[in-house]
UniProtKB/TrEMBL annotation:
Compositional bias (Low complexity): 65-86
Biased composition annotated in UniProt, kind: Pro residues: 87-97
One Pfam family this sequence matches: GcrA
Protein name as catalogued: GcrA cell cycle regulator
Biased composition (Acidic residues): 111-122
Native organism taxonomy: Bacteria, Pseudomonadati, Pseudomonadota, Alphaproteobacteria, Sphingomonadales
Species for this entry: Sphingomonas aliaeris
Region (Disordered): 41-178, 228-247
DNA sequence: CCCTGATTCGC
DNA sequence: GCGAATCAGG
């Protein structure tokens, strides 16, 4: 493959649009990630914070070891350290346009609790509530039964497993009449739990399963997230660069 | 390990 | 000019 104007154009647009070299390489096809990077540099397209490059030309500062008089050892090392001229002007403004990008995380699936009458989990009467941290929106994903999965940051025992409460009759209960209980599960019904174990009306979806899956079609939608091929993933900045056609 | 981008260097 | 090999941080 050669670098035709068209391909260079795509490279340039994607590169400036924030696509990674790998993505660009895949999009173009026939070239490696390295080829893309190499070409990008040859085109003069640098920038883009590199994981391995401190993008701070001013660096070196705060270098603990040498508070010595600024300049290195010039020949006529004048002992006079002071002479407060101005701190060595940073000459040309280095700031190469930091290409700021807004991290646009994929819209997390709205944590919907699907469960009729989700009764509040009355936490233990912790008298003096601990001040704790200020409430902050945390994005969680929803697992079967409406359990909120812990966000990556928080670590904490997963809520009380199954509050004893009172035992409920396994089957002959009015409210459980038409519900699918544990004993009703088989390969043909949706095993998506509704409510929480230990609660009076805990039961399972029970709908006809999506063939090949343990859940019905609807709940498969919750249980499985489509994993698109890389090439179809449009990275953060939804750049409308022209030439890219989704294959 | 995986991912990144940067750099080098033989072609 | 090209890009594989290599490097180095996350």
């Amino acid at each position: 493959m050669s670098w035709t104007d068209e391909r260079i154009d795509t490279l340039r647009k994607m590169w400036e649009g924030g696509s990674t070299a790998s993505q660009i390489a895949e999009e173009l096809g026939g070239v490696s990630r390295n080829a893309v990077i190499g070409k990008a540099h040859r085109l003069g397209l640098q920038s883009r914070p590199s994981p391995v490059k401190p993008n701070d030309p001013n660096a070196v500062k705060a270098e603990k070891p040498a508070p010595v008089a600024a300049a290195a050892p010039p020949v006529a090392a004048a002992p006079a350290p002071v002479e407060a001229k101005a701190p060595p002007a940073p000459k040309t403004a280095p700031a190469p346009k930091p290409v700021e990008r807004v991290a646009a995380p994929a819209p997390a699936p709205e944590p919907e609790i699907e469960d009729e009458d989700e009764d509040e989990i009355d936490a233990a009467p912790a008298a003096a509530a601990t001040p704790a941290a200020p409430p902050q929106p945390i994005m969680r994903s929803v697992g079967p039964g409406g359990f909120l999965r812990q966000a990556p940051g928080e670590q904490q025992a997963p809520i009380t497993p199954a509050p004893p409460r009172r035992l409920v009759p396994a089957k002959p209960s009015p409210e459980m009449a038409n519900k699918t209980s544990l004993l009703d599960l088989n390969d043909k019904v949706c095993k998506w739990p509704l409510g929480h174990p230990g609660e009076p009306d805990f039961h399972f979806c029970g709908d006809k399963v999506n063939p090949g899956f343990p859940y019905c079609v609807a709940h498969c939608g919750h249980a499985y997230q489509a994993q698109l091929p890389r090439r179809d993933r449009r990275p953060p900045p939804p750049l409308p660069f022209g030439g890219a056609r989704v294959r």
